[in-house]
Amino acid sequence: MPVIEVVRGDITREEVDAIVNAANESLLGGGGVDGAIHRAAGPGLAQAGAALAPCHPGEAVATPAFDLDPPVRHVIHTVGPVWEGGGHGEADVLASCYRRSLQVADEIGARRVAFPAIGTGVYGYPSDQAATIAVTTIRATPTAVEHVRLVAFDDATYRLLAAAASAD
């Protein structure tokens, strides 16, 4: 089981092997963390993503990190669920995002991975529930990843992720 660390900051500045992108199905970039990663990585990221698209909710694929600073070598793109009230399998899809991202990390040999709070932006997943699913799924997924950094963009998300990570 990887060590889980919760930090507040900019995921594009993390010193890890791979960062996870909360992407849309086109993998062409968008708003929020997706847009920030695309701006930092440069136009090659959208070109590489377009070649792999579509990426369906709950799935994950990897591309090179392009202009992101080393040691980041890869971007793992995953598409979270759009919140529709919780009765449409959203929790299973969100858990799959974390599980599949760790599986892809294993495939590319990444041992240190940074995740954003997947699905909590424009897709509307309730942040408290998403934090619990993130931590629970990471802990339950067999992986060779040694260190996971959960990167919160704001204080509220940081507090929720930290609380989930400290729960037994």
List the helices and strands and how they pair.
Layout: E1 3-8, E2 18-23, H1 32-41, H2 43-52, E3 60-64, E4 74-79, H3 90-108, E5 112-115, H4 127-140, E6 147-152, H5 155-166
Parallel strand pairs: 1-6, 2-4, 2-5, 5-6
Antiparallel strand pairs: 3-4
Helix pairs in contact: 3-4, 4-5
Pfam family, one: Macro
InterPro entries: Macro_dom, Macro_dom-like
Protein name: O-acetyl-ADP-ribose deacetylase (Regulator of RNase III), contains Macro domain
**N-C termini distance:** 14 Å
Query: What level of helicity do the residues show?
Result: 25-40%
Reported by name, the CATH topology is Leucine Aminopeptidase, subunit E, domain 1
- Overall strand count: 6
Structural class: alpha/beta
The helix tally amounts to 5
CATH architecture: 3-Layer(aba) Sandwich
Question: Rounded to an integer, what's the Rg over CA atoms?
Answer: 14 Å
* String of helices and strands: EEHHEEHEHEH
**Spans with pLDDT under 50 lasting ≥5 residues?**
none
